[in-house]
Structure formats: C-alpha cells, structure tokens
Design goal:
Length: 265
C-alpha cells in the first residue's frame, strides 16, 4: 500500500480534491433509503449496497470516501420507526467507508457529523450535552481510522462552531460545510461572518453544501471568501452542491420547494 498524503498536505500542495456525495439520494433511488427521512440504516441492513456505491464513487475518481452516517443526531432513527442504535450505524458506516477507501491508491476516508436539529433549535439540550453527542460520534470515527472529519448540513453557525471545537479535539483535519444561502444561517448570520467564525473556531476547510445548486452555492462561497480575505485569514474551501438545478429555491434551498422531497427525482 503506497503512502497516502493527508488531505491538508495535498491541499497545501495545490491539489484539487474530489469527494463523493449524494449518498442519501442515490440509495433512495435504489430503494435502500426512505425518501424524506434518508437515515442510513442500510449500512446495517444492506451493507453490500453501500459498499457498491462507495466503490462506484472510487472508480469514478473520488479522492474522499465519506462514511454514510448522515442524520445520526436528534434520534431520527427512532422517529423513522427503527430500533437501531446511532452508534451501531455510525460504526458500520465508518468501517464500510474505510474498507473501500483502502482499496484506492490515494483515497482517504471521512467521518460525517450532522446537526442535532431540534435539540439545538428548540433548546432541548445544553451546549455541553450537544457537544458530548458529537464527541461520542467522533470517538467512533477515530477508533475506525477515519482520515478526516466532515461536519455537514448545518443551519446555525453557533452549532457549527461547537462541532468544530469537538472535532479539533481528535487531532484530525476538520472540514465543515453549512447548508446556507446568500441570506445566511437561520438566525440571519451572513455567510461572511459564518466563514470568519468557523475559521477562528479552528476549521481547516470550510464551505457550503446540500440545499442549493452549483451556481447558488458558488455565490455563497464568494461572499465567504470576501470576508476571509478582508479579515486576513486563510483556509481551504469545499462545496457540495445539489446535483441538479433549483433556481426557484428560497432561503432554505430545495426544502422550500413545494415538491420536496420529490423535487430532485
């Protein structure tokens, strides 16, 4: 097995890193994930399907294979009617991602954290309780040998800062992407301020993801970059847009379209 440079070394060398993405939608279309819920119980029920999709991304040229551990916060599995434990799924998803990435000559593996949803929005848990949830999941990612950590689909910059603080404790490279538009997060914090706060919290890579198409995602990234340059800060950038256009989406992106969650089909 050849020596693999870490993601920060590669980015510092000027390399463009290609990640995978859209696991939930792809597996939903293959009838392994429930539409609208998109929780990753299939890493336990149908690991061969997840392994196959990871392998397809690897063959397509992905440099990072991201564990399918999306929506493992705020007990989404319970609301979806499953009895699986979040830690069981997080571990299974991480093992699958690591297994496939190890088959690539230079591919890296990543753990994936998601926002807690109502726990933060409705104040149902304290800051330390929420951070402990993240800490428990990060421990699984470290134990299974993930090369980096990604926090994604975050609507509030304050919770994103807490996630960065926890991820930095691991010593792994930290990436964080917010599901925001030009209008900012759900508390009205504009993209530029979000970017500055995330970099100052310690994030190595920042960006946006998931709710918006490529054009609108890049518009938001541009605002973030302007603020980082204005403050004299440095960071690396990433973007994970939707794989289709949604020009009629509002501040909440595709989730504001009446046809959602069928809008992307």
């Amino acid at each position: 097995m050849p020596f693999k440079l870490g993601i920060l070394e590669r980015l510092n060398n000027g390399e463009v890193i290609i990640g995978d993405g859209g696991m939930s939608h792809a597996l939903e279309k293959r009838c392994y994930v429930k539409i609208g819920v998109w929780t990753p119980e299939c890493v336990v029920e149908h690991p061969e399907a997840v392994r196959q999709l990871h392998s397809e991304f690897l063959r397509a040229g992905a440099d990072v294979i991201q564990a399918f551990t999306f929506a493992m916060q705020d007990k989404p599995l319970v609301s979806a009617g499953y009895s699986y434990k979040w830690d069981e799924i997080s571990r299974a998803g991480s093992i699958l991602a690591k297994e496939v990435s190890d088959k690539g000559e230079f591919a890296l593996s990543s753990g994936s954290l998601c926002e807690t949803g109502s726990l933060f929005i409705k104040g149902l848990a304290t800051k330390e309780e929420i951070k402990q949830r993240f800490r428990d999941q990060v421990k699984i990612f470290v134990d299974t040998g993930m090369d980096l950590l990604i926090a994604e689909y975050i609507s509030h910059v304050q919770e994103a800062e807490w996630m960065v603080e926890v991820m930095k404790e691991s010593g792994k490279p930290v990436a964080v992407t917010m599901a925001i538009s030009r209008e900012g997060d759900r508390h009205g914090v504009l993209p530029g301020e979000c970017a500055v706060r995330l970099v100052r919290a310690g994030a190595d890579i920042i960006g946006v993801n998931c709710r918006f198409d490529p054009e609108r995602s890049l518009d938001t990234i541009a605002l973030m970059q302007e603020a980082i340059q204005r403050e004299g800060l440095k960071t690396h950038w990433m973007v994970q847009p939707l794989g289709y256009w949604c020009p009629d989406a509002g501040p909440s992106g595709i989730t504001s379209i009446p046809e959602c969650s069928l809008a992307g089909e």
